[in-house]
## 1
Amino acid sequence: MQCSCGGRSDLVEVGQYYTEIVAGMRCLDTGDWVKLLQCPGCGQLWRTDAWDKYQTLYALKLSSLEDWESVDMETLIKTRMVENHSGLDTSPCLAMDCKQFALKGRAYCVDHFYETGARA
Ligand SMILES: [Zn+2]
Ligand SMILES: [Zn+2]
């Protein structure tokens, strides 16, 4: 069976392709707003956010089933957020006592922006 796992990066924003990606996979387990999926074509494991139409959703390739629920996606998502903003601004984050630079075009750094619930 043909699948597209190989052509995808490790961390994929799946909001627009949710049905396409998730519907074709086997759900092995579910956790707290996360699912463990396996591609029936190549066996690739994916940890994905549960569907939420108001949220940016991500899927991450996993190399093993072990502790799949506690895999840290936050760091990877923050890295992606910085990329999405083409980097950092020259002005500091507006949050109290924060020493980091804001994301380009935003008032807050990636950590504080993430705290507001932003994922993109
Ligand atoms: Zn696959
Ligand atoms: Zn900050």
## 2
Amino acid sequence: MSDTLDLSSLRGAVNDLRETGIVDVANHGWGRQGLIPLWFGEGDVPTPKFISDAAHDAMLRGETFYTDQNGIEDLRTALRGYNKRMFDVDLSDDRVTLTNSGMMAIALAMQMMIEPGDEVVVVGPVWPNIYSTIELNEGVATHATVRLTDDGWHLDMDELFAAVTERTKAIFLNSPGNPTGWIIPEEDQARLLDFARERGIWILSDEVYHTLVLDRPVAKSMLQLAEPDDKVIAINSFSKSWLMTGWRMGWMVHPEGLGPTLAKLIQISTSGVPQFIQRAGIAAIEGGDEVIADLRTRCQTGRDIVFDHLEKWPRVKAIRPNGAFYAFFAVEGMTDSVAMCKELIDRCNVGLAPGSAFGPSGEGYLRLCYASTPEKLHQAMEALKTVIGGR
Ligand SMILES: Cc1ncc(COP(=O)(O)O)c(C=O)c1O
């Protein structure tokens, strides 16, 4: 890499992009012999063969051409069926758009609505990419905080509403939440929708962990309350539910009439999701219920291994979540979570994500992804205990 390249001619918002604390920590530990990586939001099981076979077969059949910008009809139909089955929601065909990942769906939504200086209220702590995407579009992220109490994570809805100003375009909500596992109560979903309708603002509802819940069959979607013309976009992904993080495929359910606008944006960014990957998506939707059930069992086991330790450690405050697959726990006396993560790599050979990466309310916490094999989790917790398990 050149040291002399002058980057000042790039857009300010691009130069201002920060490396997320997770990447900073991962760069510190990358490639270390025997390191147990629990820093990213994925498990250690590859995509099931029947899903990969569907992509492979489609490729060999020659499904290798440019494709429909909103997604092929077969997959959109499968997703409409999925929404009916999971949420009992009937969707018209023009409300579903495939994207090259959940991340891309978020990026498109922000591109579509943010003018410079517009605000998006972000319910956090949340996945760092949300903030970066707002900033790249020259928007301003404002905050409403999900707080850890003795009986779990809670969002004060009045605090959320008070964060909305004249400049607010949207509220970004991720439930079940990364990193906290918080699940928005149904009555708060209804209040949120009423409020957004009244103010004419968008709700971006990130539901990529909708299947990863332990105390109910599925997390209730905002789509179950919204009318087809409400300003609600549900963001979803194949990554988590079907073990497809590397495939880069997600989808949006949006109001009627938005499909052609999205098609234009997709045309000039990725030009659509490769058709053979969409075939894998159909296989996942149609045959993947067992994959989800297995992952949930794995998450339950993983969660309990991790929390059986955390709950005994005097410096740690942690509450077992019922959603997503992370432990997001406070460590008493820790003021620099990036430094702590680097120390944990050096001393325990375990990779965690620093709380400070997840927005202004995240410092003081660490995130551990427990969608991993029990042996690795046992080993990681024993190692972590030596540094943060005591007084
Ligand atoms: C809250 C949240 N939203 C969206 C995504 C995007 O997932 P993907 O881009 O892999 O579809 C992630 C990934 O970690 C996430 O945690």
## 3
Amino acid sequence: MTDPHLHDDLRAAVRELCGRFPDAYWRGLDAERAYPTEFVNALTTAGYLAALIPEEYGGSGLGVMEASIILEEINRGGGNAAACHAQMYIMGTLLRHGSPEQKRHYLPRIASGELRLQAFGVTEPTTGSDTTQLKTVAVRRGDRYVVNGQKVWISRAEHSDLMLLVARTTPLDEVRKRTDGLSVLLVDLKAAVGHGMTIRPIRTMMNHATTEVFFDDLEVPADNLIGEEGKGFRYLIDGLNAERILIAAECVGDGRWFVNRAARYAQERVVFGRPIGQNQGVQFPIARAHVNVEAADLMRVRAAALFDEGRPCGAEANMAKLLAADASWEAANVAVQTFGGFGFAEDYDIERKFRETRLYQVAPVSTNLILAFIGEHVLKLPRSY
Ligand SMILES: Cc1cc2nc3c(=O)[nH]c(=O)nc-3n(C[C@H](O)[C@H](O)[C@H](O)COP(=O)(O)OP(=O)(O)OC[C@H]3O[C@@H](n4cnc5c(N)ncnc54)[C@H](O)[C@@H]3O)c2cc1C
């Protein structure tokens, strides 16, 4: 599991593709807050975003380990996998809980790139991390669901054909457990916009195509219900471990990028007649960041291996996400410090990646909520929230 040459061919191939999209490409998009359409198309055409789709549906049937390597390499090369990572983990909900007809209809089209499943509608402005309290409702009327409510931070909604939407189908006061009564609907975004759904972009501190989404009597065919009505929360939880592992891998990619850039700059930059990296005050923080990134990677590899063996990995997936997000953030800080003033200059890309990697302390799950999971489910402490 600790073999550094793990999946060398896959890494090399993804690296080759990413090499066609250098720093200047990402920098230009960042300045414009534009979506990396060309890059995502190239990844899709090469089949990488269909890594987790089984071969019978036109994907490559790889595991979360391989998927995580793909995303890691994107970030390790200076890019930002957030533009497309969700396709990998959202698709799992359809794969595990969709009907045979839904899978036959959608998965081959997603694998070929004809349809993009990039949007996941969970978070709401008034309830945040407290998912079971979400207020968006879907009421069954004949062969349709009528959706009303609002979501926030719904990323890539403008660049996706489909969205997995989590809505309440049974009111909270009518369910036995608060996790009951939520359902997952597959929304055809192109049909929905202007017919009961409005998307408004949110400008953020980094280039992240995120939005708020409003539902006003949006009609969704009942056939688009994934799995059983009322079981949506369970389906959501099922997908979280893959999500945590994949995001951890992106953080490892970011961390390696920061350490690599910082070490290189510390060799090249000469002040007081010697490379700054000859000073322990510069060298040791970079070395420590490297140690922490590599340690986080071990947990990510362990979590991915357990996931792919079909074994429980909730603790490992959460720990990997926490360790990797902390390590990439530490490495980002160290890189800024090593670059001195140039760490703040757009042309050096450090400040861009610094802004990008900061997200992973908060989304898709915040550090506190991971610690709460470990406290409650691993250490058996009282539930703290
Ligand atoms: C750029 C971006 C993209 C995103 N993309 C998506 C997306 O595509 N789809 C989607 O559904 N969501 C998305 N999100 C939402 C993201 O998952 C949430 O921001 C995240 O889960 C935290 O929820 P919140 O922002 O409502 O914070 P809140 O839940 O309001 O929490 C605020 C702070 O309080 C802390 N906190 C809250 N309760 C407790 C407690 N009991 N104990 C300790 N600490 C607590 C949290 O850790 C956090 O630091 C995105 C967010 C961002 C910023």
## 4
Amino acid sequence: MNLTDRVVVITGGAGGIGTALGRRFAAEGAAAVVLADLAADAARAAAEAIGPVASGAGLDVTDEAAVRALVEETERRHGRIDLFCANAGVATGGGIYAPDADWDRAWRVNVLGHLHSARAVLPGMLSRGQGHLLLTCSAAGVLTAVGDAPYTATKHAAVGFAEWLAITYRDAGIRVSALCPQGVDTPMLADGLAEGHLGARVIAASGTILTPDQVADAVVAGLAEERFLILPHPEVADYARRRAEDPDGWQAGLRKLVRKLRASFPQS
Ligand SMILES: NC(=O)c1ccc[n+]([C@@H]2O[C@H](COP(=O)([O-])OP(=O)(O)OC[C@H]3O[C@@H](n4cnc5c(N)ncnc54)[C@H](O)[C@@H]3O)[C@@H](O)[C@H]2O)c1
């Protein structure tokens, strides 16, 4: 897919990766870019900064009726949705004793948010025999987010769901991509690094921290090639291969890195 004249919706569009995608799609000539986010005012401000092609809207992706209403409103105003980026996501931190409310929120945003998006947008795409769904998952969905069990479990579920969609709907003309970045310089990671969280430090030690604009570059290239797995950090492909070939060796290496980081920053 190229972006010229495309109608695009981006959830989690108020900042970080979502806004960078919107900015880049507008620069590529998109006909309309809708930034939808729980933070409605920030989504509107981000859209205003992009220009008249963009608009902002309030949206909670855990509310299926609201996702459906946004899709219907966009189709009514712009005639269709060519590309839907289900990008909203949350990292709660915590392990097995993270509060149930955190596990529930991670599941509802990181997994059910994608399901609600697919249910809402696929009927229109299927009736036209074309459309592209981009699900922002994470490298945590093909590897592990040290220090965040709910994130790891739900991002793995998101990658599994994206693959299921890709296999099921490809012959009906629908393309699906799973965006799996590692560290990206957004508040989600910057706050963790500032507070010295172990998980954030593992991410920083495992590869380059990209800007959201660099992630948007990788997305535009991945969409042009209609690639399923979009990996802005190429090293993630190598890590995933090593993990698949030798799971025990991979885990031993990761444990060694965690021990080293813990020793140099005991309070994390
Ligand atoms: N920053 C990273 O290092 C990194 C790495 C891999 C994947 N990701 C993923 O990228 C996506 C974007 O994150 P980001 O890094 O730009 O961080 P971010 O926190 O800036 O963006 C996430 C956005 O999602 C919105 N959101 C949260 N819950 C929502 C809900 N219920 N409904 C609608 N919007 C909601 C937030 O308001 C926020 O604007 C997320 O899915 C995240 O998991 C981030």
